[in-house]
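go over whats below:
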Amino acid sequence: RSKTPARKTPGKFKQPPKDPVKVFCRLKPLQNDGDISCLMATDTTITLVPPESCLQYRANNYKEYQYVFKQVFSESSKQKEVFDVVALPLVGDLIQGKNGLLFTYGVTGSGKTYTMTGEPNDGGILPRCLDVLFNSISDYQAKKFVFKPDKMNGFEVLSEVEAMLERQRELHGDLATGKNVKTPRRKNSDEEIGFRIPDTTKITNLNDDNTFGVFVTYVEIYNNGIYDLLEDMSDDILRNKYQMLHEANRGDKVYMHPSLRSS
């Protein structure tokens, strides 16, 4: 008689390696020249200490708090320097087919918007990411609607003929449904965009067999509502939505679309 083979204990499931989270810190300049700083910074460390005018400091009864980061950017750090260290590697990974996530956090007034958006003559992380992305894929970018998004985080690949028909529908409107082409509304910021200084960095050594399609979503979450900031709506629709939000909140602070904030 043959013996019953012994059962092998299944090995533990090995989880794939996880990429470590890199945390950067950018110091904001003091608002007034007479303000007293309570921190000491190195390239990777921030130490918080009470000012000399503090009673605890005079009595030598205080604690120092030390925080370690991947890198600390000083008050004099430029937008380009922050972008090249923090975001440029993520754009390179994105072009190579990897996922990436970058987000800023901090108290109100700490400089998050400035770091992410910047100014027309000195862009922040967001516009520089778009500049580098399109600089790099300009020779490999598919024509519009070759990759058609399904608005559910997916897309379908159309033939050249189908994509051309989609482009014609967008340009001339769908005559079958009577939809007309929307005339873009000129926003106040359009004049500033014309004077924006782009980032000229370009990522090379791309695979010649790759073809790229870019889809961008730009939303704002405010008062438990999600708003598409790229949606092109007429002023009448915007005012109606604003009125509905105003009635729903009954006098509370409500979201106001950028095009209405200037009116």
Notes: The CA atoms of residues 46 and 67 lie 5 Å apart. Confidence is low (pLDDT under 50) at residues 251-263.
